[in-house]
Amino acid sequence: MRVLIIEDDPAIAANLYDYLEASGYTPEHAADGVTGLHHAVSAQWSAILLDVALPGMDGFTLCRKLREEARRDTPVLMLTAKDTLDDKLEGFGHGADDYLVKPFSLKEVGARLSALIKRHNGQVVPGALRCGDITLDPRTLEVERAGRPIRLPRKCLHLLQLLMATPGQVLRRAELETAVWGEMLRDSDTLRAHMHTLRRALTAEGEPNPIETIHGIGYRIGAGNPYDAP
Question: What is the mean pLDDT of the chain?
C-alpha cells in the first residue's frame, strides 16, 4: 500500500517514512504543498499524511484542491500543531478524513491510517462528518440521520458540528458556549435549551439519543452510552 507523506519538517518526515516502511507500507515524501499536490493527483495512493503549515501551499488548500478540483477521494489524515476546535473543523471542512495533533505517537498514526484505509470504499463524501448513522456536511450544512433529513436552528447546527468533530470526547459547557455564542451575555440555561432542541430533532422518529450529558462537565456524542433524558 502506497502512502504519501506531505511534511516539511525533515525529522518528522523521516520518522514517519521509517515507521511506515517498517509497517509494510510503501511511503513517498514531498516537502512542500505544491509538490505534494502534484504527487497526490499524479498517482494512486492508499492514503495521504498531510501537514497543514507547508511552504508553497498550506494543507487546507491542498486538501480542498484534491477534493474539489482533482476529484480525488484518497483518505487524508492531517498531522498538525493546530489544536483548536475551529482548526479541526476547518480541516474536516476542506475534506480531511481524520485529524491528529502534534506531537503524536507513531503507533497512533499507524492505527488511524489503517482504520482510514479499511473504511475507505472509493466514495468518500468530501468534508462529511459522520457519527453512527448521523451525517453532517459542513459545506452545505445538511444533516441526515439514517437518510432522514434533519432541519436544525443555526446554533443547534453549530453545536452538532462541534460534537461530531470530536466523537467520543467530552466538550465542556464553557467551551461549547464560547464557541457558539462567543462573549455575548447569555442565560445559564441557554446551552441546555439548545441541546434539548438538538436532541429532540435527532430523535424525532424514535431513534436513540446520541448525545450524552456528563453531569457538571459537558457533553459528548458517539460514546456508546447515550443519556436519554432531555
Answer: 85
Share of the chain above pLDDT 70, in %: 90
Q: Are 5 and 30 in contact (CB under 8 A)?
A: yes
- CA proximity to 166, closest of 91, 229, 74, 105: 91
The whole model's pTM is what? 0.54
DSSP letters spanning the chain? -EEEEE-S-HHHHHHHHHHHHHTT-EEEEESSHHHHHHHHHHS--SEEEEESS-SSS-HHHHHHHHHHTS-----EEEEES--SHHHHHHHHHTT-SEEEESS--HHHHHHHHHHHHHH--S---TT-EEETTEEEETTTTEEEETTEEE---HHHHHHHHHHHHSTT--EEHHHHHHHHHTT----TTHHHHHHHHHHHHHTTTSPPP-EEEETTTEEEESSSS-----
Return the higher-pLDDT residue of 182 and 219.
Answer: 219
Query: Grid coordinates representing 95?
Result: 475534506
Peptide bond into 103 cis (omega under 30): yes
